[in-house]
Specification:
It is a single chain. 65% of the residues lie in helices and 0% in strands. By secondary structure, the protein is mostly helical. Helix 2 (19-37) packs across helix 3 (45-52).
């Protein structure tokens, strides 16, 4: 099982989610990116996203909303 479908499932419902709930998704994704890349906690998230070609969760939600619209 991969993480992306789990995070994306029901993402259209996250439009009304609180910032703290959305932050939890970011934390899960960032921990996963660190595991994939072997990066330390001092590695910027943007660098890991570029290396893995994985969008941030907010960018992914925006992309999904535009493609569904």
């Amino acid at each position: 099982m991969t993480l992306r479908p789990v995070i994306d499932y029901g993402s259209e419902l996250l439009v009304t989610a609180s910032d703290s709930a959305l932050s939890k998704l970011d934390i899960v994704q960032n921990k996963t990116l660190r595991s994939i890349t072997g990066a330390t906690t001092s590695t910027p998230v943007a660098a890991m996203q570029l290396q893995t070609e994985i969008f941030g969760t907010s960018e992914r939600r925006q992309y999904s909303a535009l493609s569904l619209g």
